[in-house]
Amino acid sequence: MTLFHPVTGEVRVKGVTHSPNTVLHPWLERELTAIVAVLPPLDEVPDAAANRAAWTHWQEGLSVRFTLLEVLPPLRLLLILDNLSGHKSVAFVCWLMAHGIMPLYTPISGSGLNMAESIQRVLVSRALAGQHPAGPEQLIQWLEAVARGWNAAPTPFVWGGKRALRRQQARERRYRLSGSGAMTRQPIPHQGTDGMATSKASDPLAPARRRGEPSSTVWNPH
Predict the structure, then answer these.
(1) What is the DSSP string of 94-110?
(2) Exposed, middle or buried, 129 (CB in 10 Å: 0-12/13-18/19+)?
(3) I need a labelling partner for 209 at 20 to 30 A (CA). Which of 41, 61, 143, 219 fits?
(4) Measuring CA to CA, how many Å separate 70 from each of 49, 83, 98, 102?
(5) How do residues 19-57 score in pLDDT, each as one tens digit?
């Protein structure tokens, strides 16, 4: 079982040979309680109407919505889960809401939208690395050891989906005007050292120069 925090890059792993709700839910509740406990305090506690609007905002566009509690605490965390039926049990969903956590479920066959799936592949490849465990217990030990090593120097992640790719391509189609904030969508001819007119489009390093520093996206439910 894996719980991944994309902003800090920290990963929490619990090795099990099977994961019924009686094992999964208590572990998730403990880990999520610890995460919420270290969140920075709210600058301002929203009134009831604004708070409910913050919760319902994350249900907009969903074909299936679960019923929100009548009384809701301030929304503190978004939890992205796959579509296992155990993740949708009434007791577990109500526990999440009571602790300020909004569960969001990836579409069917859309587990790639949950970055925990990606980090699992990284950890598994590092844990095995050409080795062959003698049994489940040894594999669990390797995975948990790799997770501890990862958390010693975690790597924060940013979302790099199709929208991010389109934004990057749009930036690469623009040309800065002599260091100012102005840009043109056509390359500006420049006089080369041999007297020939050249353009930034012919410069193999131009895309790198045109690109600014990548921006990070922090998931803030507010």
Answers:
(1) HHHHHTTEEEEEPPTT-
(2) exposed
(3) 219
(4) 12, 25, 10, 14
(5) 888 888 999 999 999 999 999 999 888 999 999 999 999
Nearest-angstrom CA–CA distance, 118 and 214: 20
Six token digits for residue 132: 């062959």
DSSP 8-state class, residue 71: S
Q: What predicted TM-score, i.e. pTM, was given to this entire model?
A: 0.66
**Nearest CA to 37 among 94, 92, 76, 1?**
76
Side-chain half-sphere CA neighbours of 92 within 13 A: 22
Q: Are 172 and 211 in contact (CB under 8 A)?
A: yes
Query: Rounded to an integer, what is the distance from CA 119 to the centroid of its chain?
Result: 10
Summarize pLDDT for 84-102 with one digit per residue, the tens: 888 899 999 999 999 999 9
